[in-house]
Write a structure and sequence with these properties.
The model has no long low-confidence stretch (mean pLDDT 81). The longest helix is centred in the N-terminal third of the chain and has 17 residues. By secondary structure, the chain is α+β, with helices and mostly antiparallel strands. It has one domain. α1 runs antiparallel to α2, α2 packs across α3 and α3 crosses α6.
């Protein structure tokens, strides 16, 4: 059963989604924080929750970041989905649909939202305790060319993939 707090938070999310596109860092962060609150009330995890947490930290080095680190390190289809945002987009759409909230942000407005989300995430590495280095996003050529890589403690960078979506 939904609490009054959850209902108020969902009203805030609906209000934010009624003014598209969400194309500034503060608006992306606000939306992700409000979604995080709902997920926290529901005690739910998943990739959407991870990204919601990611936008508010200076580095991701605790659970579930450790799990995400391992999944990205596996360099398989699942890690590609995490890096390319396809799974995040699917989870966000389901989150909105389950609450009868507008889903246009996951369709016609996805690119502008994703671009500003990446602008936030480029400053926040995913690290694992005991491993020297971190995963990161980096814009290499504006919006269309995004690099995901691993930075070693000596500053050297290993590019893991280029994302062009």
């Amino acid at each position: 059963m939904k609490t009054m707090k959850e209902d108020i938070i969902q009203q805030k999310i609906r209000r934010e989604l009624s003014n598209l596109p969400i194309d500034t860092e503060p608006r992306v962060m606000y939306l992700m924080v409000e979604i995080r609150k709902v997920l926290e009330h529901e005690n739910r995890g998943g990739l959407l929750r991870f990204y919601c947490d990611w936008v508010v930290h200076t580095k991701m080095d605790r659970n579930p970041a450790q799990d995400i680190y391992d999944r990205i390190s596996a360099d398989n289809v699942e890690s590609s989905q995490i890096i390319s945002f396809s799974k995040l987009k699917d989870e966000l759409k389901k989150f909105l649909e389950d609450r009868s909230l507008p889903t246009e942000i996951t369709n016609t407005h996805w690119e502008s939202f994703k671009s500003k989300l990446i602008d936030i995430l480029v400053d926040t590495p995913i690290e694992k305790k005991g491993i020297v280095g971190s995963f990161f996003y980096r814009k290499t050529d504006g919006v269309s060319d995004i690099e995901f890589g691993f930075k070693n403690s000596d500053g050297s960078i290993k590019s893991l993939s280029r994302i062009i979506e």
